[in-house]
Write a structure and sequence with these properties.
The chain has about 150 residues and is an alpha+beta fold. The chain contains 4 helices and 7 strands, in the order E-H-E-E-E-H-E-H-E-H-E. About 30% of the residues are buried. This is N-acetyltransferase domain-containing protein.
Length: about 150
């Protein structure tokens, strides 16, 4: 089935929120950063995946990665290539991600992300609404991408 990746529009806000709620993820700040979200849709215009950026000055934080099982590795790779392109368009210098899934670390390395010491960036990440609890998450990996 053909999938399309596109920038979210204001009218997509409620659909994205419902999609994230089904995955039990926070929807805080979606309306304020809707132009920093990507959605993956199938031919029936159903959301298959989301990925967004929370941006403070020239630093970004990936947020709200949710994908349905119908998305394969190529789809996921394309989604990340698109979010990196969006980061370039937004003139970011650094893009962070926080993951509690060790199995995903190798994938992020392939995309150019590098692991960073949690103690060196927790304070900077605390400025992001979506990362307020980073310092309390056990077994999380923090990685960054330098543009």
């Amino acid at each position: 089935m053909l999938k399309t990746i596109r920038r979210a529009l204001e009218k997509d806000s409620e659909r994205i929120k419902r999609f994230l709620e089904r995955a039990e993820l926070s929807t805080v700040g979606i309306e304020d950063s809707i132009d920093n979200f990507l959605i993956v849709e199938n031919e029936a215009f159903e959301i298959e995946g989301t990925l967004g950026l929370e941006i403070l000055e020239r630093t970004g934080l990936l947020r709200s990665l949710v994908v349905k099982p119908t998305m394969d590795g190529d789809d996921l790779f394309a989604l990340f290539q698109n979010i990196l392109q969006l980061g370039r368009e937004k003139q970011l210098s650094t893009l962070y991600l926080v993951s509690n899934k060790q199995a995903s670390v190798q994938f992020f390395h392939l995309l150019g992300f590098q692991q960073v010491d949690k103690s060196k960036c927790v304070e900077e990440l605390q400025q992001f609404t979506h990362a307020k609890a980073v310092s309390t998450v056990d077994n999380c990996t923090i990685m960054h991408f330098q543009f």
